[in-house]
Predict the structure of Mco protein.
Amino acid sequence: MSITRRTLLAAGTAALTLPALARRAAARDMPVLRAAPSTAQIAPAGYGPSPVWSYGGTVPGPEIRVRAGERVRRRFENGLPQDSAVHWHGIRIANAMDGAAGVTQDPVPPGGTFDYDFVAPDPGTYWYHAHARSWEQVARGLAGPLIVDDVEAWEGLEGAATAEATLMLADWRLQEDGALHEASFGDLHDWAHAGRLGNTVTINGAIDARLPVRRGERLRLRLINAATARIMPLRMPGLAPLLIALDGYPVAPRPAERILLAPAQRADIVVDIPAGLDAPLPILMDAGRDEWVEIGSLIDGGVTALPPQAGPVRPLPAGTARAPDLSAPQEEVLRMEGGAMGRLERARLGGVEQDFRQLVAARRVWAFNGVAGDMDEPAFRAPLGRTVRLRLVNETRWPHGIHLHGHHFTVLTRGEQPDAYQARRDTVLVRPGEPVEIAFVADNPGRWLLHCHMLGHQASGMLSWFEVT
Ligand code: C2O
Ligand code: CU
């Protein structure tokens, strides 16, 4: 059959049948999330704004908010000078939407776009961040909050919070002129130690943030640690924080005088603002060695006071992730080794055993199960629906925040003792010599990353994946 202009036209029309038209219409009204260089006032007053990379021109990026079960749709536009992708941290997402550049999708090149369209199944406090050269891209500012509201508003119930605020914490390494310290991006000495620690902590992009609150109100604070390396112990003296969720997942409400957030972790707390608030209420962070510094404060917003909330705080509605079946789980181990003072004598890289010198030359200083970031074989495979019990053993001298993509897990034990919270999480802090056991139902098919969320550690060997089939 010869192809005439008429048949060509017919074929063209056939390709534009309704579903295709509907898809085009849907793509046209996709909200845009654009990553590009911009500036932000993260240095103290007296310095000019610092060059950063941001989503939507702000640091942190715009808060994305949906109700549980709703879709999140964003056209990612890459205005950066390098490849990127957006990861929706903690969301039990369809694999193709997970945003792990090079694993679940091709990296988006400069000038390119990628349409993210997924359902957010679980209410809670989540976040999104770059997942290509994340040790650099997140440190330059590419992160933002993703809040999934309960289907039925939790607000307004007796004893519940009357208002809420998202507090995204970040850690910047600024040089004397207030610009980001770019020369030390990728510094292997940092990576072999705690990671790229900064010298300036911001809340919602502001140094010394002053957050207006209402006297007498019951306030839900959603705390997100978006730092690439810094573990943040937090206190709010003058308030009696009640912890209600970890990594977005509800826990039975309990007093939490000290809140510990490893990189990528979240905590939701409820605080009762005193009716007689006359001085700012400081938010303190342990900068190391029990040196508590003020990183921001809650101040009187000047609105009419509310009568104090006396009732108990109700627990959040339970989440929907399946509970692990611990009767006959698939047992797996993830052994961490390497780093400063724990020298990685040998590990597999590029499919062969390499020694310390070769590994350092390849910028690998950490390993999982004797493999320094090779991606050809998974750490483990699990059949769909199987419960996996994973033992995390830290043989290094450094703490690590281990994150699994696509799943929530239960923290069963810590240092061989039952964990106090038995919380569902997506990121868990594993200290040296303190094994942690987690379990989860491998119910989300695909290849999922498994890595340390100290992002320099991830880049230098603490990266693997698991497959659910
Ligand atoms: Cu929040 Cu693979 O990361
Ligand atoms: Cu680590």
